[in-house]
Automatic annotation (TrEMBL):
InterPro entries the record matches: Cyt_c-like_dom, Cyt_c-like_dom_sf
Protein name: Cytochrome c domain-containing protein
Signal peptide boundaries: 1-23
Species assigned in the record: Paracoccus yeei
Domain Cytochrome c: 29-122
One GO molecular-function entry: electron transfer activity
Claim: Heme is one of the keywords in the record: yes
Keyword set, alphabetical order: Heme, Iron, Metal-binding, Signal
One protein family per Pfam: Cytochrome_CBB3
Length: 125
């Protein structure tokens, strides 16, 4: 059963009150959930590996490779500059040929988990 946003906030608050180990476990669980969300919804365009025949990259990865010319990395999972707010903006609004995702497709809790997963390499997060 999915946890409502308020429930997730209470869980995180309780984990922080319980100590650093509990907070780390909660964050690890959220990142694992975010990885599953990414694998299900995003990896087909933004994951590693080859794309269509004749293309060395998947479409979303290739578009970011061309746009940024390697800095930042084209693979979203290797980026160090993403924040949960940035992830949420692009997921909810789409960009270029990337469609937006409705709350019925990626719920708020799953979106928060996805943001935690994709921002895990950001030293400021």
């Amino acid at each position: 059963m999915k946890q409502p946003v308020a429930g997730l906030a209470l869980t995180l608050t309780a984990a922080l009150a319980a100590g650093p180990a509990a907070a780390d476990a909660t964050r690890d669980a959220q990142i694992a959930r975010g990885e599953a969300v990414f694998d299900h919804n995003c990896a087909s365009c933004h994951g590693p590996g080859i794309g269509n025949p004749g293309n060395a990259f998947k479409p979303g990865t290739d578009a970011l490779r061309v746009k940024y010319e390697g800095d930042p990395p084209a693979l979203l999972t290797e980026r160090t500059d993403l924040t949960p707010d940035t992830v949420a903006f692009f997921v909810r609004n789409g960009v270029s040929i990337m469609p937006f995702f409705r709350k019925t497709e990626i719920g708020d809790d799953d979106l928060a988990a996805l943001g935690a997963y994709l921002s895990r390499n950001n030293p400021d997060q």
